[in-house]
GTPase HflX
Amino acid sequence: MKPLQTDITQASREPRPPTRALIVSVDFGEPEFQAQTDEFVMLAKGAGADIVDILIAKRARPDAALFVGSGKAEEIALAAAAGQAELVLFNHNLSPAQQRNLERALKLRVVDRVALILDIFALRAHSHEGKLQVELAQLQHLATRLTRMWSHLERQRGGIGMRGPGESQLEMDRRMIGDKVRYLRERLGKLERQRQTQRRSRARGGAFSVSLVGYTNAGKSTLFNALTRAEVYAADQLFATLDTTTRRIWIEGAGSVVVSDTVGFIRDLPHTLIAAFRATLEETVHADLLLHVVDASSPQRDEQIAEVDKVLEEIGAADIPRILVYNKIDRSSHEAGAERDEHGTISRVFVSAIERTGLDALRGAIVEASQADPVVLGNNSDDPRFRTQSSSASSAAGARS
Ligand SMILES: Nc1nc2c(ncn2[C@@H]2O[C@H](COP(=O)(O)OP(=O)(O)OP(=O)(O)O)[C@@H](O)[C@H]2O)c(=O)[nH]1
Ligand SMILES: [Mg+2]
């Protein structure tokens, strides 16, 4: 007999009925426009949208009030009505005013790119910590909208003499959001401290730590499973992974190695999300080596590499030794194996996580990195013990002269 579903949180985790959605994507002349629109369609499907139509507009710059022109807005309204859309998804980040004006003009709910990504994260978060992080990011996104909506109203009403119940409602909303944000931060802070303790005890064990990072859908989880024989969820969808999973493996020559699979990155990742996921990304920030997994078969792979580099910089992981792992070579023209840079250090490894080719070369690269970069010293590149042989030799020579 099936139990009755009375638990709301349980029910909200059930697959949602698809929402009929119209997509709007505006071409500002960037070369990546088509790829970015395709990616957005995949995000929309990942959030459970049933896409009724995709409208493309061309503009030099966004309209301040509506993002698109008023003629385009009418076209959107007609297409939405024809397709019986319940929702309009914008492949862009809208200002609170643009969102509000569009909702008024279209008489439909409008969701922008940040809100859509937050929605997918909410759908996919499984761990307690992951759920708290997403909730925090959502509240922060909402809070900026409430504040700005309020200042807009204030201007409109002229302030003095016009203050009424509307104001106190907004103030109450704001206070409640503020309280909740503080509460979530405290809880997350506690979890972060627990994590640090765990990491310290692992570090005492002297294991070399490796973190898999990369653009969403690059194949990080599949590679993690291939390396560790784990069974982490991997799927052809954006943001399949939200929680960091860590496994300890033994690699001959490197000894005990701690490997972490992490959340994927995406172009223009919302800042609120990066901030909220700081604790999860700590594993990455403190790793001894980053394996930057790249979808070698994607025409966008170079832009994706640049986006990941940008996020790594933002979270303070730019100085960690890094190896590019070109994955999915079964679908590209690369050969399995490793490639060295001009210093003789392995810089790129070519693998297929699915066909499990190139994994020995990858393990070899991890061994070399672990020998070049002793764990016990951490990964502080300012530490003189960390300089490469040649640079410490030349600085010693400089001191003598
Ligand atoms: N052809 C091919 N497909 C692969 C390979 N590795 C992974 N995939 C596929 O790529 C898709 C994404 O794989 P995941 O391992 O979930 O990717 P991820 O980087 O963990 O993605 P997120 O967790 O969403 O950021 C899945 O459909 C995998 O089956 C590979 O070597 N070759
Ligand atoms: Mg994954």
Observations:
- Residues 220-221, 234, 240-241 surround magnesium ion (ligand 2) (CB under 6 Å).
- Residues 165-204 form the longest helix (40 residues).
